[in-house]
Amino acid sequence: MQTLNAKNLTLGFGDKVIIDNIDIVIPEGEITVLIGANGCGKSTVLRSLARLLKPKEGNVILNGEDIAKMKSKDVAKKLAILPQGPITPEGLTVYELVKQGRHPHRGFIKQWSTKDEDAVHHALEVTNTLSLSNQTVDSLSGGQRQRAWIALTLAQETDIILLDEPTTYLDMAHQIDVLDLLYDLNEKDGRTIVMVLHDLNLASRYAHHIIAVKDKKVLAQGKPETIITPNLVHEVFQMKCNVACDPIFGTPMCIPHGKGRCIYNNLNQETATTGT
Fold first, then answer.
1. Which of 32, 57, 142, 240 has its CA 20 to 30 A from that of 14?
2. Using an 8 Å Cβ cutoff, are 68 and 54 in contact?
3. Which pLDDT tens digit goes with each residue over 127-179?
4. What interhelical angle do 172-189 and 142-155 show, nearest 10?
5. Most distant CA pair in the chain: distance in Å?
6. Domains plus CATH for the chain?
């Protein structure tokens, strides 16, 4: 297994600081979810963990080594990232896309091997995209396309997978479909998965570990049962809510306050009017 953490990490662009002096430990073999308001720096943290963004200060440590000092190909053998809304070249088939995941394992003169082919086949199989191999990626539905991109990351055969909002733009059924797939990868293969999610209830259901980001800092990190509370949700999102127990999974379930059609109020009004 590979370990991933950050120490005294400060991130930003130019003179602007987005993340200021944070420490993060990603639990091995678990699912970690980053939560926080829009623009708080969740995606920035994820990019830095993948060495796509150089820290202003501090270090990202991958398997005991400063990731900034590692060769790109060595990083890609240990860690895969799926950015938000990746763009596929027009006309590329699913097989051709997933095949690119083997690039870190191949040299200039190394020929395509049986191991490479097996890795691509396995990635297509576990993501249920094998039957789509010859279709172009741009012809797929949103859920199918996301599965194809996840297959690409799996073909890298890394112990750590980072995903930036993997359920964005997907309907509810496809959101669950993608998250179930990631859950199975964690449960069956022991993959360490780190992702950014906006839905707190889905984050609570699938994550073993949650990191809440606010005002350039890590406000809290730990199990969903201790992190997702009315006070923390209000502090992070400036939103009042109740937190109940999910009746199916037993995980925290956030019920936001706000305006809307409330049948309890209607029942109370009817009772007051009829006197029953």
1. 32
2. yes
3. 989 999 999 999 998 889 989 999 999 999 999 999 999 988 788 998 998 89
4. 20
5. 86
6. 4-78+160-273 (3.40.50.300), 89-157 (no CATH)
